């Protein structure tokens, strides 16, 4: 298939591109490099379009004669969205709609969307896809709003769409070629690894007074190679789903606490993670754990790397080889 991938130079996008290439798909990467890394794009193997997804002319050109679109490009920080909600709705919703205009103009119907469990808000029961959607931050709200647009367009037959609601993406490509490199790192695993290696200040554990077994938050960590593979499965499934718009959770169904992640980082690195306990972080629910049934039945998805130690191991291998992220490689 000819597959266009917006945000293909980003963390999950670059892993999905690698997966698509390994299966023989022809890939067009669309990325403005505002957050992505050119070093994460195998330029000789893909057609690379450096452009903003809000640029209708560039998108219409880029999507010409493509069979499918996987849309990763967007803003992704919960904290950032609390400070600047407008840019989240502008990029994740308004520019996403421009991309849909380009998809319409070029008759690209298969649309796989990078969504998030932040669309649910604070859980009050098992997180199936039907759980109420009451996002508690503008990031989740902007992703949910775009899901609703996609659903409306799907109902009138413009697209067939799958929205993949990721839980906690983590780890690095198993062959060591790709990893996680954000300009402003806020995620637990990279921060804990860097704290262990002495490259960042000690970790702050955000709250240990939650109603969870060890008092720290539970999250469902999914390896990024597993997530990448799920996108390929979604491409294969999108023509045969019962509904033209299908949201699907991507998680393992198992929760790991912040303390358990710290212990895993210590086991894997053989070093202590200097840390202290701080106040809760605003907007953090105690537990976010997927009910993953639909990913199994609709996609045939089964995580290949469900253990937290293996996930942390891949992140650590990449971090050791790229202490400055992708700039280490140049
Ligand atoms: N966390 C933490 N200290 C940090 C960063 C994260 O205790 O410096 C906790 C956070 O409160 C959450 C979990 O680690 O419970 C995962 O957070 P992360 O930011 O990695 O992902 P999120 O769950 O926000 O998508």
Question: What would you say this structure looks like, in words?
Answer:
This protein is α/β, with parallel strands linked by helices and 330 residues long. The protein folds into two domains: 2-170 and 222-250, NAD(P)-binding Rossmann-like Domain (Rossmann fold), CATH 3.40.50; 188-219 and 253-327, UDP-galactose 4-epimerase, domain 1, CATH 3.90.25. The chain is built from ten helices and 14 strands. It has helices spanning 11-22, 56-63, 78-83, 85-105, 138-155, 188-196, 224-237, 258-269, 293-299, 308-321; strands at 2-6, 26-30, 47-49, 68-71, 110-116, 160-166, 168-170, 203-206, 218-219, 221-223, 245-250, 256-257, 275-278, 287-288. The strands form four sheets. A seven-stranded parallel β-sheet has the order 3-2-1-4-5-6-11, with helices on both faces. A three-stranded mixed β-sheet has the order 12-9-14. A two-stranded parallel sheet has the order 7-10. The model has no long low-confidence stretch (mean pLDDT 96). Bound molecules: uridine-5'-diphosphate (UDP).
Per the principal axes of the C-alpha atoms, what is the gross shape? globular
Ligand names = uridine-5'-diphosphate
CATH class of the largest domain: Alpha Beta
- In the sheet with the most strands, the strands line up as 3-2-1-4-5-6-11
Helix proportion: 25-40%
CATH superfamily of the largest domain: NAD(P)-binding Rossmann-like Domain
Main sheet characteristics: 7 strands, parallel
CATH topology of the largest domain: Rossmann fold
User: What's the total count of β strands?
Assistant: 14
Order of helices and strands: EHEEHEHHEHEEHEEEHEEHEEHH
Question: Spans with pLDDT under 50 lasting ≥5 residues?
Answer: none
Strand content: 15-25%
């Amino acid at each position: 298939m000819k597959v266009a991938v917006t945000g293909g130079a980003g963390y999950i996008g670059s892993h999905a591109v690698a997966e698509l290439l390994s299966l023989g798909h022809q890939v067009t990467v669309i990325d403005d490099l505002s957050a992505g890394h050119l070093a994460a794009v195998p330029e000789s193997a893909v057609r690379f379009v450096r452009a903003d997804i809000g640029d209708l002319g560039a998108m219409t050109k880029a999507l010409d004669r493509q069979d499918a679109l996987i849309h990763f490009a967007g803003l992704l920080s919960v904290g950032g969205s609390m400070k600047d909600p407008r840019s989240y709705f502008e990029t994740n919703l308004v520019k996403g709609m421009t991309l849909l205009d380009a998809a319409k103009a070029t008759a690209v119907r298969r649309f796989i969307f990078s969504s998030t469990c932040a669309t649910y808000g604070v859980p009050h029961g098992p997180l199936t896809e039907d759980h109420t959607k009451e996002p508690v931050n503008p990031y989740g709200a902007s992703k949910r709003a775009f899901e609703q647009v996609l659903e409306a367009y799907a109902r009138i037959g413009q697209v067939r769409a799958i929205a993949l609601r990721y839980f906690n993406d983590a780890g690095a490509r198993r062959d060591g070629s790709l990893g996680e490199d954000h300009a402003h790192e806020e995620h637990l695993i990279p921060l804990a690894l860097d704290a262990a290696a002495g490259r960042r200040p000690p970790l702050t554990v955000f709250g240990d007074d939650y109603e969870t077994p060890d008092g720290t938050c539970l999250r469902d960590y999914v390896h990024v190679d597993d997530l990448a593979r799920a996108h390929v499965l979604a491409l294969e499934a999108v023509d045969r789903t019962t509904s033209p718009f299908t949201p699907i959770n991507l998680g393992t169904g198992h929760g790991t606490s912040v303390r358990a992640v710290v212990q895993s980082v210590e086991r894997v690195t053989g070093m202590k993670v200097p840390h202290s306990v701080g106040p809760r972080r605003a907007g953090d629910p105690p537990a976010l754990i997927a009910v993953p049934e639909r990913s199994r039945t609709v996609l045939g998805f089964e995580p290949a790397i469900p253990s937290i130690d293996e996930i942390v191991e891949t992140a650590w291998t990449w971090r050791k080889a790229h202490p400055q992220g992708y700039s280490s490689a140049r």
